[in-house]
Design a protein that fits this description.
Largest sheet: none
Radius of gyration: 16 Å
Strand content: under 5%
Distance between the termini: 17 Å
Helix content: 55-70%
Order of helices and strands: HHHHH
Number of helices: 5
Length: 120
């Protein structure tokens, strides 16, 4: 299905930690914003933080918990749909790999990760 190569695997493996840090930064910023809200009680803030962490934990799991060569294409699609894998990253992939990721990511709704449970 995918046209990602060994070269693509090595590059994506190399940026994995950077992308996890970026997603974590975004989540932490959302939490900080929730905590600073003046229109919520302290309990409402706590509940909002809990909801945010629960929701975003699914993003973390889909994007980083199942990194293997056989799932690389699906995980890269998750990264793309979450806005983590940007055009500047795709420039480091093979032309076929970059094209495949772009074409398949257009088929997904925004922020809808692909099903990475296939083949389990």
């Amino acid at each position: 299905m995918s046209s990602l190569t060994e070269r693509d695997w090595k590059y994506l493996s190399g940026i994995r930690k950077e992308l996890l840090e970026e997603l974590s930064r975004r989540i932490n910023a959302e939490v900080a914003t929730a905590v600073k809200r003046t229109d919520l009680s302290e309990n409402e803030k706590r509940r909002e933080v809990y909801r945010l962490v629960q929701d975003r934990d699914g993003d973390i799991a889909a994007a980083f918990d199942d990194w293997s060569r056989s799932k690389m294409f699906f995980v890269a699609l998750v990264w793309r749909r979450l806005g983590l894998l940007e055009d500047r990253h795709l420039e480091h992939l093979t032309p076929e790999g970059a094209r495949s990721l772009n074409e398949f990511s257009l088929l997904l709704k925004p922020n809808q990760p692909p099903d990475t449970t296939r083949g389990r």
